[in-house]
Amino acid sequence: MTAGEEAQAKTGQAEGKARDALGSAIGNDPMAAEGQAQKSTGAAREAKEKAKDAVKH
């Protein structure tokens, strides 16, 4: 995993976590759901890149 790809994955997870927390705090369920989806997307991107690295080595 390159540093840029890892940073994008971690950024997506962090933004999703923040959006989820904010949405939950203010009672905005759609925002919380978007945050959960964004966290999942970041985690999936990270898993994909780790799998690609495992195949290379």
SSE layout and pairing:
Layout lengths: L2 H24 L2 H28 L1
Helix pairs in contact: 1-2
Task: Give structural notes.
It is a single chain. With 57 residues, the chain is mostly helical. Helix content is 91%, strand content 0%. It contains two helices and no strands. The longest helix has 28 residues, at 29-56. The N and C termini lie close together (12 Å). The model has no long low-confidence stretch (mean pLDDT 91).
**Average predicted local confidence, pLDDT:** 91
What is the element string, with H for helices and E for strands? HH
The total beta strand count reads: 0
Give the radius of gyration: 13 Å
Low-confidence stretches: none
Strand content: under 5%
Specify the biggest β-sheet.
none
Helix content range: over 70%
Query: What structural category characterises the helix and strand content?
Result: mainly alpha
Number of helical segments with 4 or more residues: 2
**Tertiary shape:** elongated
Alpha carbon gap, first and last residue: 12 Å
Name the descriptors:
single chain; 57 residues; mainly alpha; elongated
Summarize the structure.
By secondary structure, the protein is an all-alpha fold.
